[in-house]
Amino acid sequence: MTEAEMRAILPAKLELVWETVTDLTRWDWRTDLKALRVLPDGRFQEIPQNGPATMFTITRLEPMACYQFNMENDNIRGSWTGVFRPVPEGTEIVFTERVSPKKWWMAPFVKGYLKQQQRRYLADLRRGLGLD
Questions:
Q1: Has residue 132 got a pLDDT over 90?
Q2: How far apart are CA 30 and CA 27, in angstroms?
Q3: Other Cβ atoms closer than 10 A to 122
Q4: Can you say whether the dihedral through the CA atoms of 66, 44, 25, 117 is positive or negative?
């Protein structure tokens, strides 16, 4: 299993950061997505601009503190945890992904892919919060 962690302090109120990340009906700030479907069983599916759709199952939702889910698509399976904390400068976020590739030959590329995805997500989140 490969793990990648992203930490940042965003100059925005905790409530706004939390709402932006967890509101599944407002995903238009994400440049990597073509669509997001909320399913009746509580799961959701992200349809990316490129690549396979990913299914998510929320496993923990602690308002203004922790958001966690399992994820799976044709290439990977794993989990994502987001920790949110108010700080004097705004909000500290710590996002951790733990992923296992389903195809052996993908293993050497997983860490780089996760880091790239995390950088893109943070840039999108900053724009979605009106910080850029």
A1: no
A2: 6
A3: 16
A4: positive
pLDDT in tens, 4-18: 999 999 999 999 999
What are the structural domains of the chain? 2-24+60-128 (3.30.530.20)
Burial of residue 17 (CB within 10 Å: 0-12, 13-18, 19+) is buried
Q: What are the strands of the beta sheet with 33-38, ordered from one edge?
A: 2-10, 90-101, 76-87, 66-72, 54-62, 44-48, 33-38
CA angle 26, 20, 1 (to 5 degrees): 100
pTM (2 decimals)?
0.94
pLDDT tens for 25-75 read 999 999 999 999 999 898 999 999 999 999 999 999 999 999 999 999 999
What whole-number distance in Å separates Cα of residue 98 and Cα of residue 77? 8
Instruction: Report the run of H or E that residue 58 belongs to, with start and end.
Output: strand 54-62
CA geometry: angle at 51 spanning 102 and 83, to 5°?
A: 75
